[in-house]
């Protein structure tokens, strides 16, 4: 009986120390990534941290089947912080939500360790489908302000999502994506060059087609001439007759009387 109670107490102690470690990691993340924070006490006022800590409580209730209390905690957190995290979302250590207002994180979202998210970000679904429908975000990812990351896509480790980007496809690791639709601009530290848009040297597709056609007609003329020479219809300087009998001088038709 005593041994059983001791076992329970040590189990509880283990859980508490793990939870404390996680809280410390969250604080460390905020301190490392926000140059505006001057002390740990100041950090305790950050709503981004409150939202993450409230979420950890909501998620613990959610996985134990207490769905209503989990949702209640999440909604209270949303009311006070402006950050909506579904209790089902799985979040790693050291998540830092900077400023945070307007952040929405969906039910089946998975977030790795040391991720940074700015205000106005959505990690959401694209429609009303069930199952896994929200993003999986790797470790050390940065999601810029107002970025919308939609669908069950995968954001690789160390990727950066630019402010305002709309991402609907997987992002490889160590890639920076910007714009709508999100396109890579940096891969593993190397800038990707855009298309050549020098306006004075824009391609002219009509002129190119005409050039190709002229080349082709000249080629065909050579073939026809060679065939006519072979058939004895013209001599070496291109004089003779066309197959239908019309006279031909230096490769051209000679106008008959009445034609000009
Ligand atoms: C994308 C980002 C992470 C920069 O990444 P980076 O790897 O340093 O990339 P660079 O700054 O070299 O930019 C690469 C190209 O993308 C463009 N770019 C950068 N950020 C962009 C954005 N958010 N939207 C559109 N284009 C962007 C740059 O102009 C540059 O274009 P160029 O090649 O034509 O010159 C950064 O610009 C960003 O958006 N960070 C989010 C920060 C944020 O949300 N802060 C909120 C504070 S409250």
Number of strands: 19
Strands side by side in the biggest sheet: 3-6-9-12-14-15-16
Write the element-wise H/E pattern from the N-terminal end onward: HHHHEEEEEEEEEEEEEEEEHEEE
What is the CATH topology assignment of the largest domain?
A: UDP N-Acetylglucosamine Acyltransferase, domain 1
Question: Structural class of the secondary elements?
Answer: alpha/beta
Percentage of residues in strands: 15-25%
Q: Report the principal-axis shape.
A: rod-shaped
What is the second-level CATH architecture of the largest domain?
3 Solenoid
The set of bound ligands, ions and cofactors reads:
coenzyme A
Poorly predicted regions are none
Average pLDDT number:
89
How large, in whole angstroms, is the Cα Rg? 35 Å
Query: At the first level of CATH, what is the class of the largest domain?
Result: Mainly Beta
CATH superfamily of the largest domain: Hexapeptide repeat proteins
The separation of the N and C termini measures 123 Å
**Count of domains:** 2
The description of the largest β-sheet is: 7 strands, mixed
Helix count, per DSSP? 5
Overview of this protein structure:
The protein has 260 residues and is α/β, with parallel strands linked by helices. The protein is rod-shaped and about 125 Å long. The termini are far apart. A seven-stranded mixed sheet has the order 3-6-9-12-14-15-16. Helix 3 (47-63) runs antiparallel to helix 4. 26% of the residues are buried. It folds into two domains: 2-191, 3 Solenoid (UDP N-Acetylglucosamine Acyltransferase, domain 1); 199-253, no CATH class. It is 36% helix and 18% strand. The mean pLDDT is 89. Bound molecules: coenzyme A (COA). Residues 99, 118, 144-145, 160, 162-164, 176, 178-179, 185-186, 191 line the site of coenzyme A.
């Amino acid at each position: 009986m005593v041994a059983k109670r001791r076992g329970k107490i040590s189990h509880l102690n283990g859980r508490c120390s793990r939870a404390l470690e996680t809280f410390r990691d969250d604080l460390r993340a905020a301190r490392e990534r926000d140059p505006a924070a001057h002390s740990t006490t100041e950090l305790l006022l950050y709503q981004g941290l409150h939202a993450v800590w409230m979420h950890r409580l909501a998620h613990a209730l959610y996985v134990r089947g207490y769905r209503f209390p989990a949702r209640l905690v999440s909604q209270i957190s949303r009311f006070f912080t402006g950050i909506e995290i579904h209790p089902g979302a799985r979040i790693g250590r050291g998540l830092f939500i900077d400023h945070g207002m307007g952040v929405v994180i969906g039910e089946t979202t998975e977030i790795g360790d040391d991720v940074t998210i700015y205000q106005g970000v959505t990690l959401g679904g694209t429609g009303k489908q069930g199952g896994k429908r929200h993003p999986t975000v790797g470790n050390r990812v940065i999601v810029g302000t107002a970025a919308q990351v939609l669908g069950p896509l995968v954001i690789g480790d160390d990727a950066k999502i630019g402010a305002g980007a709309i991402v609907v496809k997987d992002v490889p690791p160590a890639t920076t994506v910007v714009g709508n639709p999100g396109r890579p601009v940096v891969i593993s530290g190397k800038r990707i060059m855009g298309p050549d848009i020098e306006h004075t040297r824009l391609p002219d597709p009509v002129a190119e087609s005409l050039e190709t056609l002229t080349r082709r007609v000249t080629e065909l003329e050579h073939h026809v001439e060679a065939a006519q020479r072979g058939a004895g219809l013209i001599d070496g300087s291109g004089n003779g007759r066309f197959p239908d009998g019309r006279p031909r001088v230096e490769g051209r038709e000679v106008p008959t009387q009445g034609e000009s």
